[in-house]
Write a structure and sequence with these properties.
Layout: H1 13-25, H2 48-59, H3 61-72, H4 84-98, E1 102-106, E2 120-125, E3 132-138, E4 158-161, E5 172-175, H5 179-200, E6 206-212, H6 220-229, E7 238-239, E8 247-256, H7 257-260, E9 269-270, H8 280-289, H9 313-323, H10 328-335, H11 345-354, E10 357-364, E11 376-377, E12 380-389, H12 395-408, E13 415-422, H13 433-444, E14 448-449, E15 455-456, E16 467-468, E17 471-472, H14 477-481, E18 517-518, E19 526-530, H15 538-554
Parallel strand pairs: 3-6, 3-7
Antiparallel strand pairs: 1-2, 2-6, 4-5, 5-19, 8-12, 8-13, 9-11, 10-12, 14-15, 16-17, 18-19
Helix pairs in contact: 2-5, 2-15, 3-5, 5-15, 9-11, 13-15
């Protein structure tokens, strides 16, 4: 992971020469760590130990990108289970190479939702430091639902010009499932930590890693792990990176002939039977239509918005300020959509940060072979849905209201299966030491804050660093109060949460983080390996990690927790 070549045991001197020659002949990626404009970050104020890390990152950026390629090449699809055990062991191997004294893959067992959770990988790296930083990872990814839409195979990790991937503003990107969600940012963290240790011998803080394999399954395994093993994070003083989270509850709805008492009951039957027989499939479609407005954008569920919080006047002003700089056409194109529900930038930004939704994620039953004939009258249809909600709403309460609405609409026979719930979280104070450290790291490297407090590159670029929920987010107060895309913030946060599970309660780092990527959950997911500037490429992301870790070790307004260092 540090760019060193590890030779097999029993390797002879001739083999070493061959290995050396192989490295020389291996095609170089020639990644420019400073991006195509060639302007390096401002490093003049960096202490010597940090400057050495920056130099190491520049010298080894090709190797660091290859590390990400190898991880992308290992599928880790939690919805199907493909590659999950292998990926858990691979992540454990990362932590072993970092030198963590304790690394373990935990089998979390059966979760409260009745499904087995995927393994959680835990590691503790004792550097003998006063402060300990916890780092949250997900190693699972979404499935590939439309392979023909990819410009590159999703599990090869190929590097292509950004223009070929539909992002002409980025010179070179790595395309692959998990590239931005979340293997790219996580590998940037690991590369930075490995670089720090390679040149300085140890890290300035202790580390605790928690890597889950269920983020795309509502974090069901991590929820049980935190409930059972909160003590493993008892020495953590902060979470490296985090922020607020929307709530998200996930269900499956099933209409069956057996429960309905009409149509086929035991199995699908021949399609000719529709001449004489009721269709559970058509019943399911009408049931779904009864739950939303005709455009599908407004849930028609009694009490759906009960207790819902709306943006404050201060937050609305921030949204209006950002809306004045927002190009909806460009933003929609970058996100792969034709247009938004509204043509008003203020409404789009407000919906993206404070909105709720009832989505149809997928539906199946009967003849599922595209393009093929074959007459089928299905006996059962299932659809999957996520409700995204905000403070002070409650996921299980939404499902109770859904049940009541279905009964009221005449669909008492429709089954509801709860897949999982991720409650909302406010996040932490932006004045916490870890957030201050992120901002100091940005300033150390020449980034600056202005206007509504985004960090901007030294070349006065107007691009924001942090993207939450797929739209550009300001830093500071709004981040602490608003919601981003869902993630298990509620399991770690020291702020207000929709439900408390376990006893972990630590501040989470919010601030500028480099790198750029996009198309999470979509075809041609990408992560920038070479940016147009240093800050939106992989090397810049790594330097910000190293600087933030260093700055946190030097920033103490809250006393660290007592530590039990390894002997």
């Amino acid at each position: 992971m540090t760019g060193l070549i590890l030779l097999p045991l029993g390797c002879k001197s001739g083999d070493k020469a061959a290995s050396s020659q192989a490295k020389k002949t291996k095609p170089a990626l020639h990644i420019n760590p400073n991006g195509t404009n060639g302007v390096a970050p401002v490093e003049s104020s960096a202490p010597p130990e940090l400057k050495k890390v920056f130099d190491y990152i520049d010298a080894h950026i090709d190797d660091h990108v290859e590390n990400l390629q190898k991880w992308i090449q290992q599928p880790s699809i939690s919805n199907s289970g493909e590659g999950i055990p292998e990926s858990a062991e691979m992540v454990k191997g990362f932590f072993d190479k970092l030198g963590c004294q304790t690394t373990r893959v935990y089998d979390v067992g059966i979760t409260e939702y009745g499904s087995p959770g995927n393994p959680v990988v835990y590691a503790k790296c004792d550097e003998g430091a006063p402060k300990t930083v916890a780092i949250y990872w997900q190693y699972d990814t979404m499935p590939v639902t439309q392979p023909d839409a990819w410009v590159q195979p999703p599990f090869e990790g190929n590097i292509i010009p950004g223009a070929a991937a539909g992002v002409p503003d980025i010179p070179r990107v790595l395309v692959g499932r998990g590239a931005v969600n979340s293997k790219g940012p996580e590998m940037a963290q690991l590369n930075a930590l490995m670089a720090y240790k390679a040149v300085n011998g140890k890290l300035p803080v202790n580390l605790i890693f928690v890597a889950e394999g269920d983020e795309e399954r509502m974090d069901i395994g991590l929820r049980k792990f935190i409930k059972d093993h909160s003590d493993l994070l008892s020495e953590a003083d902060a979470l490296y990176a985090g922020g607020p989270s929307e709530g998200c509850v996930y269900v499956e709805l099933t209409t069956s002939g057996l429960k309905w008492g009409r149509g086929p009951t035991v199995s699908d039957v021949h399609g000719v039977m529709k001449r004489t027989t009721d269709s559970p499939a058509w019943r399911h479609i009408h049931m779904l239509a009864s739950l939303t407005s005709p455009d599908g954008n407004t849930p028609l569920i009694d009490g759906f918005n009960d207790n819902r919080e709306y943006p404050t006047p201060e937050q609305m002003q921030q949204l209006k300020d950002r809306a004045a700089k927002t190009d909806l056409v460009k933003m929609a194109k970058n996100q792969g959509v034709a247009r938004y529900m509204s043509d008003d930038p203020v409404e789009v930004l407000k919906d993206g940060r404070f909105g709720t939704s009832f989505n149809l994620d997928g539906i199946w039953g009967g003849n599922m072979y595209a393009g093929g004939a074959g007459a089928i009258l299905p006996n059962k249809i299932t659809s999957k849905h996520n409700f995204r909600y905000v403070p002070k709403m409650d996921g299980p309460d939404l499902i109770r209201k859904l049940r009541a609405q279905l009964d009221k609409n005449g669909y008492k026979d429709v089954d509801i299966k709860l897949i999982g719930d991720v409650p909302w979280s406010r996040g932490s104070s932006p004045t916490a030491d870890i957030s201050v450290a992120h901002r100091k790291a940005a300033e150390l490297l020449g980034l600056k804050a202005s206007g509504d407090n985004p960090f901007m590159a030294a070349d006065n670029s107007s691009e924001y660093f942090e993207k939450l929920g797929g739209e550009l987010a300001p830093l500071g107060v709004a981040q602490a109060e608003a919601t981003g895309g869902y993630w298990p913030s509620y399991l770690f946060s020291d702020g207000e949460v929709g439900q408390k599970v376990g006893s972990v309660s630590i501040p989470m780092g919010m601030g500028a983080r480099g790198g750029q990527g996009g198309r999470a959950h979509a075809a041609n997911e990408y992560f920038a390996v070479e940016g147009s500037r240093w800050d939106n490429g992989m090397a810049g992301a790594e330097k910000l990690v190293a600087a933030a870790i260093y700055e946190y070790s030097q920033t103490t307004t809250t006393a660290p927790k007592p530590k039990t260092h390894a002997k």
